[in-house]
Design goal:
- The protein has 545 residues and is an alpha+beta fold.
- It contains twelve helices and 21 strands.
- The protein folds into three domains: 13-276 and 337-417, no CATH class; 281-331, no CATH class; 425-545, OB fold (Dihydrolipoamide Acetyltransferase, E2P) (Beta Barrel).
- 31% of the residues lie in helices and 21% in strands.
- A hairpin with a 4-residue loop joins strand 20 (487-496) and strand 21 (501-506).
- The two termini are 38 Å apart.
Amino acid sequence: MLEVLGREDQPRAASLIALHAHAIPSGFSPAAEAEAEAAPAPTLKGREDLRRLPLVTIDPVDARDHDDAVYAHPDEDPANPGGHVVWVAIADVAAYVRAGSALDRDAWTKGNSVYFPDRVEPMLPERLSAGLCSLVEAQDRACLAVRMTFNAAGHKTGHRFVRGLMRSAAKLSYEQAQAAIDGAPDDKAGPLLDPVLRPLWTAYACLLKGRLARQPLEISSLERRIRLNPEGQVVSIEPRASLEAHRLIEEFMIQANVAAAEELETRKVPLIYRVHDAPSREKMDQLGDFLQTLGISWAKGEPPRTERFNRLLAAVREGPHSEIVNEIVLRTQMQAHYNAENIGHFGLNLDRYAHFTSPIRRYADLVVHRALIRALKLGSDGLSDAEIPRLTETAEHITATERRAMAAERDAADRYVAAFLADRVGASFTGRITGVTRFGLFVRLSETGADGLVPVSSLGSQYFVHDDRAHALVGERTGERWRLGATVEVKLLEATPITGGLLFEMLSEPEPADPDAPRPRLGVRARQGGRAPPKGRPPPRRGRR
């Protein structure tokens, strides 16, 4: 069957092409839509009344749904001096998406929502994702909440899960909440500053002590946001601000996810874990080889530990190699995935971890909600006997759908960026070499974060050898080199919105030969001449946490 998507040069075609190119299911079955439309408003039946708690949602300013709400206060228990109580309330999607229903079948097939600059392909119909399952301000909403207690050192000492009815006291953006804490509250955040926001930040300062002691991997990764006008055209590409408000919500969500995994293990109820294996010995050795080219010592043979990576990242933080060392440490990591068996989470340095906090957009979280309902006897809509034997299959499936979504999101972003730069063909840009292959160099532009290719055929008349240990292209005759992480000037030769491809010409000169480096081996020459790949990108970033 053929479907007309529109003209390929239309501004909003990028996300539609990505959806179809990666075979991401679009829309919902009539049966699923009917179930969503028939969903009733929540009541107190079978729920604890949490509407007295001033829970607030803190999300991106353009958030399309609101999974989670938070509230914190000092612990009044005299046995826990300096401790804090943190509430995390999550939309009770399991109450609406029952195992085996049409909604459940569609959600399982999709695996997760997919987000593009101009649209979202949701896991659930809008009636649920933006309605009954979204923690809308001043509306009664069903939730599954966890009350966690932390001591003065920031260690969790206990938790309790409840199925409740909540009412969000306010919908805030990260920027609003941060501005209020920084002394510039607006009319909405101002009244919440003392009763809600300051206690949240005080609790976060406490939890931060525990985080620092735990030493999760602290990689700095600059993300950029594509801004569109109403017609769908890119008007700017700018760095996403990294605020303390982001880190506060992240840490609260991590702790809630840990509590969910701990509860289910204690109750001996099967679940799907979010796991992350330690880097392989080969990747650790490759990291050591590269660091040696920068003059940074890195003893080989030591087991990978997050604390060791963090010391390295801290040592280079203020130096010229900070960005590329962060990039290489990130590439050294394995990809996180879902698994019915637990191997721990290396990056977060946690023994057990499950995704619990985003059931509107991730099927894994819905499974964990159902498992908690079953374990705690909170209703008849918990994890069914039929689902348990399929948990391994489900984990493999939703890992695949997550990778598919990431690829589609990246492809759409590449196309938007190429469209944005199409009018600047011939202009020169500053960038950094972020990938070295035998067919050329990948350069990431400092201004936009866009990635493009400098074909090896354009680097000069001599042959270049790909030194994979040093992550460099080395001139066979002169020993001059193009090294990963080097800052360069390039000229944009081509920008192809339909593929998202960018082609650059190198304007900078290579680094002079290193007299201490071994001469490149003959017979492993990089390609010269021929056509460059129509679209390329540097090695992929590792998966989401």
